[in-house]
Amino acid sequence: MCGIAGFNWNHPEQIRQMTDAVRHRGPDDAGFYCDERVSLGHRRLSIIDTSPRGHQPMQFEHLRIVYNGEVYNYLELRKELESAGYRFHSGTDTEVILLAYHHWGADCVNRFNGMWAFCIYDAQKRTLLLSRDRFGVKPLYYYFDGSRFIFASELKAIRPLAGDLQIDTTAVNYFFYQKYIGSDRTIYQQCYKLKPSENLVFDLQTRQLHKSTYFDLPARVEACRQLGLSERLEAIKGILPDAVSRRLIADVPVGSFLSGGVDSSVISAIIARQRQNFQTFSIGFRDESYDEVPFSKQVAELIQTQHHVEYLAIDEPFIERVVGCMDEPLGDASLLPTALLSQMTRKSVTVCLSGDAGDEVFGGYDSYKAWQLAQYIPAGAVRLSRPLVNLLPPSDKKLHLAFKMQKFVEDYHENPEWRHLNWMATFTDRDRAGLLGDRFVRADEFIHPAGRRDLTGMQLNDFGGYLPEDILKKVDLASMMYSLEVRVPFLDYRLVPMVLSLPDAYKIRYFRTKRLLKQMAAELLPAAIIHRKKRGFTVPISGWLRQSGLLREVILNRAYYEHGFVRYNHACQLLTEHLNRQKDHARQLWLIFVFNTWWHTVHCGRKS
Fold this sequence. Notes:
Layout: E1 2-7, H1 12-21, E2 29-34, E3 39-44, E4 58-60, E5 63-71, H2 74-83, H3 93-104, E6 114-122, E7 127-132, E8 141-144, E9 149-152, H4 155-162, H5 169-178, E10 191-193, E11 198-203, E12 209-213, H6 217-224, H7 229-246, E13 254-257, H8 262-274, E14 279-284, H9 293-303, E15 306-311, H10 316-324, H11 335-345, E16 351-353, H12 358-362, H13 366-374, H14 379-389, H15 401-410, H16 416-424, H17 429-436, H18 455-464, H19 466-480, E17 485-487, H20 495-500, H21 515-521, H22 527-530, H23 541-547, H24 549-556, H25 568-579, H26 586-603
Helix pairs in contact: 1-4, 2-3, 8-9, 11-19, 13-16, 14-15, 18-19, 23-26, 25-26
């Protein structure tokens, strides 16, 4: 992976400062370009053609590029471009992207199979083209005040140049509702993120910008539905191993995350059929309800990998460090084990494949099962059951039954899409109004569901928000802390719409999730692994919160509330109820802790 940065004026020192801010994304090389119109910067993590020929910004005629990502079909595109008369001077996919733009224009992105965030400076047209991959694996942020245009892989590179940035109240509400900030918003006003499948063209003369969507996932899903069912199933079985194979291309060591769950196990098992003695990685916890090491060891032994396992502790200095690395608040506690896993993995390899997105693509979340259950339970029965369900005692065990039942009845909504969002939420409208007071904004003012009532609609909802702005953002943040590139085979653009187009029964049937994936896995893995209870990848945060002096400091010290968004007395009440085991407020307290710590670190200069 790499880090990119740039802006629409000439300033060599400022572009160096921006590039230094994302050095962790690319420790192998640094490059800069400035002229009277633009400044561009790049930090390189060398993956393909590690020689100096891959140095960026890379030039071809009047074009220059800074690029973060991998295009896995670059060799096929290179042959096509060579047939058209182009000559190449490196073995990089960067040069392929640059020449593809020269040959096909901005539509070249439709030919790419991969993950990317790049900027191409066209000196002839006097434009900057920014592009983000179809599903948002790689991040790309920008600032625009009507005159100055600044972009970078991370907000921390933009912040010093943008001046006095104000926190966006709606973004704060988004964070406390869904534990991430979705759509094109960021935590700051005038700072935005390019959404998945978006191109942005900035005209350097008129200082106008134009955004367009080059990949319409719902339309692709409908197009796939025009194919016969057997044709789609056959295609899926061929695409998945090819998607894995393409993501093994590198000139550096490659491995695979292996938790022992079905997603990472399938990816690792497919690799094992293509390569011998490759390396797999997992971490463990002492709490057995969270520990998956026995399962990962079982799979590794079966498929015969060089398996690396470490039992790692998440202490308070590490938590402060991870939260301190955030561009903006991100409330997914699984960021912590993902960072530990990335730290361990980077000691052995530079690239790692993961099983992320298996739940979104094949239908694996409990909220999808809840959607199916809701089809059979009258709304009146849900309302009547609430008092009884709320009497169930809290537990520190992972995803305990009481939590699931309480979430189902408390956050039930007549509209399936809002019901799904509420089930995924930490603070619903009711809870957030108490937490934020006069800073409260209703969810329907910043989220606009498509109006679908089927399971595919729930999945598309997650592809538009939860996947890119929580799951993929978490993986990017955690892996880039340690200069590790993570590749996601389940997000091959040929695979996703094909699977989403299938009837619901191929995803969930009789409350059993990921039916098709598990059928495919039966050729690779034993039934005990395929059908074991889903655990997810997170940490025993509830128990930690009861013991943490750091949490008490951040929740009880008024200095952490100078931002004026969270009501101090409300937060203290949640903490008291949690410590007294009256209710399990772990998820809510974690978000308050993250927000307060992030704000204090960034805006008060607190060292993490």
